[in-house]
Amino acid sequence: MDLFLSILKALHLISIIAWMAGLLYLPRLFVYHSESEPGSLQSETFKVMERRLFWGIMNPAMFFSFLFGLALIICSDSLDWYSAWIWIKVICIGILTMAHMQFGMWQKAFEADANVHSAKTYRIVNEIPTILMIMIVLMVIIKPF
Q1: What mean pLDDT is predicted for residues 126-137?
Q2: What is the pTM assigned to this prediction?
Q3: Most buried residue, 25, 61, 63, 74, by most Cβ within 10 Å?
Q4: CA distance 133 to 3
Q5: CA pair distance 21, 14, nearest whole angstrom
């Protein structure tokens, strides 16, 4: 069972790394895309990059992150649901998931040449996944509460 749990943890971590890579990169693409002229070759290239990143990497990575995370919860008997750290982590994951969904809506807006936000907005939003990632890692590793 220890080997099985170790494999689940590894798969969960691999999925999280892929998901986070997308969550950190997609808003950066939005920054550059928002500065390009709609309909231009550059804009069309960004559309392809954003679509492939969101649908080909981020969505599957998020799905497998949840799948392996839930499998860990089911298979592990050492998780203490009375500790505050796990609830802080769950809240951060919820916010991360909402950010993911918002990024998907923005990706669709860019696809339709209907972006309404500035590059500055995307630069600021780009920090949200980083802050959440730091909080989640600190909760899981240190378990301060």
Answers
A1: 96
A2: 0.92
A3: 61
A4: 26
A5: 11
Fill in the DSSP letter of residue 145. Answer: -
Closest to 67 measured CA to CA, from 20, 18, 12 = 12
Give which of 95, 94, 88 is closest to 137, Cα–Cα: 88
59-97 tens-digit pLDDT: 999 999 999 999 999 998 878 899 999 999 999 999 999
| Longest Cα separation, the chain | 55
Cβ 77 vs Cβ 141: under 8 Å: no
CA atoms within 13 Å, Cβ hemisphere of 46 = 28
In the chain, the amino acid numbered 65 is S
- Number of residues that this document lists for the chain: 145
DSSP at 37: P
CA torsion through residues 50, 120, 21, 94, sign = negative
Contact 20, 66 (CB under 8 A): no
Q: How far is residue 9's CA from residue 43's CA, in Å, rounded to a whole number?
A: 39
Contact call for residues 31 and 107 (beta carbons, < 8 A): no
